[in-house]
UniProtKB/TrEMBL annotation:
Gene Ontology MF term list: DNA-binding transcription factor activity; sequence-specific DNA binding
Keyword Glycoprotein: no
Domain WRKY: from-to ranges: 194-258
Protein name: Probable WRKY transcription factor 4
Ranges where the record places region Disordered: 1-32, 158-197, 249-278
InterPro entries associated with the record: WRKY_dom, WRKY_dom_sf, WRKY_plant
Primary location recorded for the protein, binned into one broad class: nucleus
Keyword Repeat in annotation: yes
Pfam families in UniProt: WRKY
SMART domains on file: WRKY
GO terms under cellular component: nucleus
Polar residues: bias regions: 1-11, 162-177, 260-276
UniProt keyword list: DNA-binding, Nucleus, Repeat, Transcription, Transcription regulation
Length: 349
DNA sequence: AGCCTTTGACCAGCG
DNA sequence: TCGCTGGTCAAAGGC
């Protein structure tokens, strides 16, 4: 029915964005002259601080800043460490694009009000996203302080939140449930199998072609939905190192998602394996992303979670670079600051 | 056996 | 018409 040409106008979910204060160019964060890469919290600090401001701003102020300014989008990091921006283009196609560090333009990290911060942090998905910190405390632990505040904020903003999230529930499902799939591939955890399974979006895909893209290092793979008579196709572009750089969808599914955990349904479901009971980071992260995508940023909790997501993003940046003792010390200081701010906030409550 | 990926060939659109 | 390019087909082989 909704063939691609005629196109299933999958409309992009309009989601509010949060804005952060003017920031120095991201590039400058990585070039302090020492050739050393900054840690996540260092980056957070630099990210939020004013250029002319030499004093450290409390974390609560950072949060306040994040809440105040519109139009800024936090980077979204995929499981393979590539930075993705998943969006829809004209004609009902949605796409995921790589990000430049200097332009953190990506899908928002949002958390549905019913998902408690602690639940989020305790989830394996979040664990996967935020691996153990190299200096002892996991970021999960360090951020527990912040999420405690998030829980408070959540309860305080529950009314506001529930009134604003209304449109997200069902109407956007068809589009948003696939929204973040580009990010779910984790080449590290599934080196051999997942290398050509671009995304676990709940549907089953069969690859029917691959072409090198002229003039660049990318190759493009073509997938069809394996469901009978389903017209949906997707194109997945990857760089030579296997990272997904873009996903393009065509058409709309004319069927429900296959049940992921159905055993022995006779489903020709290659991808179903990846949603097996022992859900890895991939599946859980996918669920998390789906939740994220389905709910607009509308509360302090959302903003706080945006910060958490930013830290995760910075985590990955850091993991890609050499971390020095000096930077780690800085991070510990920042962590302590977060902790203090958390306690302060609790007192204020 | 059935489904998958791979990959070269083929086809259509475009300049 | 020709060459280029993107998209698809289908045979072969693997799991």
């Amino acid at each position: 029915m909704a063939e691609q040409g005629t196109s299933s106008k999958l409309s992009a979910p309009t989601r509010p964005t949060i804005a952060l204060p003017p920031t120095p160019a991201m590039d400058s964060l990585f070039s302090d002259g020492s050739g050393l890469s900054p840690g996540p919290m260092t980056l957070v600090s630099a990210f939020f601080s004013n250029q002319d401001s030499t004093e450290n701003r409390p974390f609560s102020q950072l949060l306040a800043g994040a809440m105040a300014s519109p139009g800024y989008r936090l980077p979204y990091s995929s499981m393979d460490g590539s930075l993705m921006d998943v969006c829809f283009n004209d004609g009902g196609e949605k796409r995921s694009e790589p990000l430049n560090f200097s332009v953190p333009n990506s899908a928002l990290f949002t958390v549905p009000p019913r998902l408690s911060p602690s639940g989020l942090l305790n989830s394996p998905a979040f664990y996967c996203l935020s691996p153990q910190s190299p200096f002892g405390i996991s970021h999960q632990q360090a951020l527990a302080q912040v999420t405690a505040q998030a829980a408070i904020a959540q309860s305080l903003n529950h009314e506001e939140t529930s009134s604003q999230m209304a449109p997200s529930a069902s109407g956007l499902q068809s589009s948003t449930m696939e929204y973040a799939e580009a990010s779910q591939f984790d080449g590290k955890n599934q080196p051999s199998v997942a290398v050509d399974k671009p995304a676990e979006d709940g549907y089953n895909w069969r690859k029917y072609g691959q072409k090198p893209i002229k003039g660049c290092e990318y190759s493009r793979s073509y997938y069809k939905c394996t469901h009978l008579k389903c017209p949906v196709k997707k194109k997945v572009e990857r760089s030579t190192d296997g990272l997904i750089t873009e996903i393009l969808y065509k058409g709309a599914h004319n069927h429900e998602k296959p049940q992921p955990n159905k055993q022995g349904t006779g489903s020709s479901d290659g991808n179903a394996n990846s949603q097996a009971p022992e859900l890895g980071c991939q599946g859980l992260t996918g669920n998390l992303n789906k939740l994220n995508a389905a709910v607009p940023v509308c509360s302090n909790l959302g903003k706080i979670m945006n910060l958490l997501k930013l830290q995760n993003y910075l985590d990955q940046v850091r993991m890609r670079n050499t971390v020095t003792k000096r930077v780690e010390t800085k991070e510990i200081i920042m962590m302590n600051r977060i902790r203090k701010e958390g306690m302060l906030l609790r007192k204020l409550r």
